[in-house]
User: What shape does this take?
Amino acid sequence: MGRTLHVQMMHVQHVYMLPERGWVDYSRAVFMYATHYLEDMPRLTDAQRNNAIGRMEAGESQSDIAVVLNVTQSTISRLWSRYQQTGTSRDHPRSGRPRVTTVAQDRYIRLRHLRQRFLTASSTTNAIPGLRRISDQTVRNRLREADIRPRRPARRIILTREHRRQRLLWCRRCRLWRVQQWRRVAFSDESRFMLRRADGRARVYRRRGERYAANCVQEADRFGGGSVMMWASICHTGRTNLVHIPGNLNAVRYCNEILQPHVIPFLNANNVIFQHDNARPHTARVVTAFFNQNNVVVLPWPSRSPDLNPIEHLWDELDRRVRRRLPEPQTLQQLVRALQEEWTAIPQEVIQTLIRSMGSRCQTVINSNGGHTRY
Assistant: This one.
């Protein structure tokens, strides 16, 4: 190794040494070459260090070990000295790069983002007092150290103070209901299903430069390719048919197309009370009069409370089943037919499990003081 380096140094002298400049340029050339040579030296792994120590203990020379591992003899010498002094081949602990922020500034970053959860890292970078300019990544690193990470926010409907109060009162009244009482409730709702839906959570596995490759682009219709409105009702012992509602639903159509042909026979067959939300067609006077004429008992329902209705989770299950069909529906008629087929294929045990969760739903709303829940 030493002879090789000496020959290479002679080559440097031949190339860089000039008669009129003499030894100064030669020394500079040697320094430049040595710097470049040492930078190219590979860093020894733990296995290589253990190998070098084992060879030294076996009596092999440092020069021969350096040639085998492609490092300088001084590297092997320092490794052997460190091993004799400390008994280990690992490097000494390093302090690393000094932190650009103080403890107080780290606390400011953490509290700022805990108080205003939708702030960006760049806005915090410009607002830190008494600090030189830092990068946005430094702010993210400080937040990550405090276990504060950017996540996709949950989307929920707007709840006013009155909505929260009504939800809390309703759940306090119903939290002591037993499962047998919830079994006597028929939950109903409408839901809209789109023919094509662009899922923002979808991911594509691609390489750099393939962002707009044909097999990496998810094409989506601007308006989803059309949609259909479906209605249904469920209880512990059964379910209605999945009814397609073309066009807009008003109070008169609600009575003639939903309540009279579907709800009344379903309630009489299962001996249950009826639940629906406070949508405008549901609370119209003509609908109230229809309930009075047919002696239908309606469960009072708090506004803006889809998380309390177990049928909402059934809509999600229905949508997932339709999306798994191959091939997927291509027209609205095919979508309606697929929805109705998958609706009848859902096991009744799934509905019963959702209805048994009503007590937990009420308690969760109480714990959140009438606010949003995980349901």
Q: What stands out?
A: Residues 251-270 form the longest helix (20 residues). The chain has a mean pLDDT of 85.
